[in-house]
TrEMBL record:
Protein name: Glutamate--tRNA ligase
Pfam families in alphabetical order: Anticodon_2 (PF19269), tRNA-synt_1c (PF00749)
Taxonomy, superkingdom: Bacteria
Gene3D superfamilies: 1.10.10.350, HUPs
Name of encoding gene: gltX
Organism: Xylophilus rhododendri
Length: 464
């Protein structure tokens, strides 16, 4: 049977990097094994589920290139199927009605807590041979509980955590349908995984406690469970579980901040998986190397500085024309239309940038009328002593050909004429041209600057 994996997010808030990693690994496993990747939206929490959250999930996956083969399937659209399976389970004696009220449950748990016992349902309404059940209260709609097996253990070989065994006596009888008949999460998940022929469930380890319950439901339905791999938690930079409350950002925010999707895939892949000491790799290499045997067992910690470094490496490796297409989009957001200089501008500045937005910040300077330097930097470098040399350079370049060799020659002649060293001239020219004393090679920067804009900016010191 071919591999079939799934990503099953709950659309009750935006999807962050910790969530999307639970999509990356099943996607990669399906792609690396020639299988299928299914998207399933678990939207049964009607009060908290929103279309906006669904949209962020879909946008984030599309941006990262996590394409799915089937779906998206929505659980709320499958209610008739769940209820039909529930009826079959009830007819087979695996489900029973429970009339215990919430107040009674709360009182039971309070007594158990005071007695230092594990709070759990005590089986009051569980049918057993020779047992007399309490009278059915009038006007009370029951929940339906799953008749969990008694005795023995639930065991599975987790691809991350190894062998896990849970005694059935540790599991009480799970509510699998609410009083209004709506099936609950753990039951719906099992029906979905059966209907969708899921072979491998790769998900966060916050689901480990659900797994033995789900395995028992699988077996009550006459099915063997899939292979499980429970991924360790992703922590934020403060060492807390990554979450919206703890400052996590939507995945789409990284897109808007100028991160590259392949770099994000590279970084996320290393948050819980490794291939030797390889830090930087392409999407194709990742899919070639990926397997479940090298998933880590320890929690991974998000590090924005590391993410920016990874992004910078991918940015440097990109073709200038490809970068220019991305930067052009950023410039259009600023009402700037680029021209055929943009690819060369990207090639000149990409080694200095860690995001597309940072690269667009440099490119913008070539397309606006004026740039601003800080008062401190201007005062430090654009001093009266260099004004004569600035005038000489302006005169020489006014009639020179606009290419690097001619510009370099004009700079060299200016230095000789005034007995100056390169930094004494280059730094004030850079401040006037780009608003900073630190740029790539001066002749390359000047060549990419429009001649009229160059003349206007070089002469700016005369007005200050």
């Amino acid at each position: 049977m071919s591999t079939r994996t799934r990503f099953a997010p709950s659309p009750t808030g935006f999807i962050h990097l910790g969530n999307i990693r639970s999509a990356l690994y099943p996607w990669a496993f399906a792609r690396s094994t020639g299988g299928k990747f299914i998207l399933r939206v678990e939207d049964t929490d009607v009060e908290r589920s929103t279309q906006a959250s669904v949209d962020v999930i879909l946008e984030g996956m599309e941006w990262l290139g996590l394409d799915y083969d089937e779906g998206p399937f929505y659980q709320m659209q499958r209610m008739d199927r769940y209820k039909a399976v529930l009826a079959d389970l009830q007819a087979a004696g695996h489900v029973y009605p429970c009339y215990m009220s919430i107040a009674e449950l709360d009182a039971l748990r309070e007594r158990q807590t005071l007695a230092k016992e594990k709070p759990r349902y005590d089986g009051t309404w569980r049918p057993e041979p020779g047992k007399v059940l309490p009278p059915v209260p009038e006007g009370v709609k029951p929940v339906l509980r799953f008749l969990n097996p008694q005795g023995g253990v639930v065991a599975w070989d987790d691809k991350v955590k190894g062998r896990i065994e849970i005694a059935n006596e540790e599991l009480d009888d799970l509510v699998i349908a609410r009083p209004d008949g709506t099936p609950t999460y753990n039951f719906c998940v099992v029906v979905d995984d059966i209907d969708m022929d899921i072979t491998h469930v790769i998900r966060g380890d916050d689901h480990v406690n659900n797994t033995p319950r789900q395995i028992n439901i699988f077996r009550a339905l006459g099915k063997e469970p899939p292979v499980y791999a429970h991924l360790p938690t992703v922590l934020n930079e403060q060492g807390e579980k990554m979450s919206k409350r703890n400052g996590a950002k939507p995945v789409t925010a990284y897109r808007d901040e100028g991160f590259l999707p392949d770099a994000m895939v590279n970084y996320l892949a290393r948050l819980g998986w490794s291939h030797g000491d390889d830090e930087i790799f392409s999407r194709a290499q990742f899919l070639e190397w990926f397997n479940l045997d090298h998933l880590g067992r320890s929690a991974a910690q998000y590090d924005e500085a590391k993410l920016r470094w990874v992004n910078a490496q991918h940015l440097k490796a990109m073709a200038d024309e490809s970068l220019a297409a991305l930067v052009a989009v950023q410039l259009l957001k600023r009402d700037i239309s680029a021209d055929d200089r943009l690819a060369r501008i990207c090639g000149l500045f990409k080694d200095r940038c860690d995001t597309i937005v940072a690269l667009a910040d440099w490119a913008e300077k070539f397309y606006v009328e004026e740039v601003q330097a800080s008062e401190a930097e201007y005062a430090q470098h654009v001093v009266p002593a260099v004004f004569p040399a600035l005038a000489t350079l302006g005169e020489k370049l006014a009639s020179a050909e606009w290419n690097k060799p001619a510009i370099a020659a004009a700079i060299k002649e200016t230095l000789a004429a005034h007995g100056m060293k390169m930094p004494q001239l280059a730094m004030p020219v850079r401040v006037l041209l780009m608003g900073t004393a630190h740029t790539p090679s001066l002749d390359a920067v000047i060549e990419l600057t429009d001649r009229k804009i160059f003349s206007a900016r070089l002469a700016k010191h005369q007005k200050c």
